[in-house]
Amino acid sequence: MKKKIGVLPGDGIGPEVVAEGIKVLDAIASRFGHKFTYEYALVGAAAIDETGNPLPDETLAVCKRSDAFLFGAIGHPKYDNDPSAKVRPEQGLLKLRKELGLFANIRPVTAYDSLLHMSPLKVDRVMGVDFVVYRELTGGIYFGEKGRTEDTAYDHCTYSYAEIERIAHLAFKAAQNRKKKLTLIDKANVLETSRLWREKVTAMAKEYPDVTLDCMFVDNAAMQMIQNPKQFDVVLTENMFGDIISDEASVIGGSMGLLPSASVGNKTAMFEPIHGSYPQATDQNIANPIATILSVAMLLDHLNLIDEAIEVRQAVNASLHNGMVTQDLSKGQGFGTDRVGDFIVNHILDGEASGSQ
Ligand code: IPM
Ligand code: MN
User: Fold this and answer.
1) Which of 10, 132, 201, 317 could form an S-S bond across to 108 if both were Cys, CB 3.0 to 4.6 Å?
2) Where would I find the Isopropylmalate dehydrogenase-like domain in this sequence (predicted)?
3) Across the chain, what does the average pLDDT equal?
4) Does the pLDDT at position 355 exceed 70?
5) Mean local confidence (pLDDT), 5-28
6) What does the pLDDT average to over 19-27?
7) Where are the beta strands (DSSP E) in 60-211?
8) Cα distance between residue 56 and residue 52, in whole Å
9) What is the pLDDT of residues 279-288, one digit of tens each?
């Protein structure tokens, strides 16, 4: 199968972890006889430095003509102390989402048995945690009208039935393929937009009689996620609540360095590790490549290359199981970013050598 993959390494450790992701895609291509062609493009601070624009037109064009694209990370310390800087790396990401219509951000949260001791939560609360967050990504307060006078400011939050419906269908379908439970997180006791979400999603539940819908206020959900994270299966929420809840969820399993994400719409889709650009670790060969490699697995799923995605996940499990991990997951020194990638690549290629699938 031939596929065009866009590659946006971005800033900080982005290029290093993305390089490992591409090695894994190459291994899959060779093992399964596919042809992946890659087109690289600039985004974030790297793009500002080169062109003055965090999302140059050429980058957008590369993404538009891709079947899917891999994204590293964006952000550079020189922008961190000045949130009001006119041009910021984050604008590149927000524009990418909006322009490409990537309306659903999907973040699986899995607690790996070998890493339970690293969770900030008690082991018995974390063991067996396995849920996925569906965050709406192109609406709400992020993209509403904004304004500022000298001493006041506003950010409008607006949602339409159509915006709610398209992501809710994805979330209900995901629940049907999992434990058949959907939790809608909102603030319907206060916000009109949340009441719209609740009304629409509750009405849609009739189309999915096998899925149990549960509605939860966001403040309670933030607490429940710590007290009893095992209760969740598929979590659905709007843009801003999803931003906050998914960061909270990301630490439950013990390491952010393992968590992948997908941002999907109607055409191309974007796959990225959920961690940031981790500037202090840049070029030190210590960044954990697994979140990116698991994002590659999600990319393969998206291209309907299901066996290929399973193969990648098995290779990642083997690396965790064998202690072939970077320093963030290791009691000792840990292995380099490239060594962990090599192990995963060899595991995939060895399957070829032994003829097993
Ligand atoms: C995320 C990030 C972005 C967001 C920032 C970088 C704009 O925090 O992907 O969750 O708030 O959506
Ligand atoms: Mn965030």
Assistant:
1) 132
2) 4-344
3) 95
4) no
5) 98
6) 98
7) 68-73, 104-110, 130-136, 146-148, 153-155, 181-186
8) 8
9) 999 999 999 9
Give the domain extent around 72.
Answer: 1-103+265-357
Ligand-binding annotation for 148, yes or no, is: no
Report the pLDDT value the prediction gives residue 80, as an integer from 0 to 100: 78
Considering every ligand atom shown, identify the ligand nearest to the alpha carbon of residue 73 and give its number.
1
Instruction: Please give the C-alpha separations between residue 33 and each of 30, 63, 303, 316, 351, in angstroms, as whole numbers.
Output: 5, 24, 15, 21, 14
Boundary residue ending a domain (257, 282, 317): 257
Q: Which residues surround ligand 2, an ion (CB under 5 A)?
A: 243
Residue of the nearest CA to atom 1 in ligand 1? 243
Helix runs in 111-256, H state only:
123-126, 161-176, 192-204, 218-227, 239-250
112 with 95, same domain?
Answer: no
Strand order in the sheet with 35-40: 35-40, 2-10, 68-73, 270-273, 260-264, 104-110, 130-136, 234-237, 181-186, 212-217
Average pLDDT over residues 135-159: 98
The span from the CA of 291 to the CA of 164, in Å, is 28
Question: Which CATH number is 137's domain given?
Answer: 3.40.718.10
- Closest residue by Cα to atom 3, ligand 1, is 90
